[in-house]
Amino acid sequence: MADKSMKQDREVKKVAEVKVKETPVAAVKTKPEKSSAASGGASTALKTCTCSHSFQNERYGNGRRIMNSMKDRKGYRCTVCAKVSST
Question: Is 79 exposed, middle or buried (CB count within 10 Å of its CB: 0-12, 13-18, 19+)?
């Protein structure tokens, strides 16, 4: 009985290897990456925030922060303190 199950296991492995080899790389379809520019909105914005960051204060002005657009497009999240600002 053990020989029979081992033989079946080997046959299954051979079939699996053949299926992998038969699939050419060019035939595999992948989803294109979505970019925020392609979806119709800016991914970052310069907005006011109450947090403190010496570099951004010097670069953009006191209280002005770079904020990332949120996935639901209902607001922006501060890159320094993660506070959410409405659009």
Answer: middle
Residue 34: pLDDT over 90:
no
Assign 3-class secondary structure to the chain: CHHHHHHHHHHHHHHHHHHHHHCCHHHCCCCCCCCCCCCCCCCEEEEECCCCCHHHHHHHCCCEEEEEECCCCCEEEECCCCCEEEC
Q: What is the tens place of the pLDDT at every residue in 54-79? A: 999 999 999 999 999 998 878 999 99
Retrieve residue 81's tokens. Answer: 């303190």
